[in-house]
Amino acid sequence: MSKLDVCIKRIYEKPVKRDGYRVLVDRLWPRGIKKETAALDQWLRDIAPTPELRVWFGHDPERWREFRDRYLRELDGHTSLLGELLERAADQRLTLLYAAKDKKVNHAVVLEEALRAWPATPATLRVARKLPSS
Question: What are the domain boundaries of the chain?
Answer without folding.
Answer: 6-129
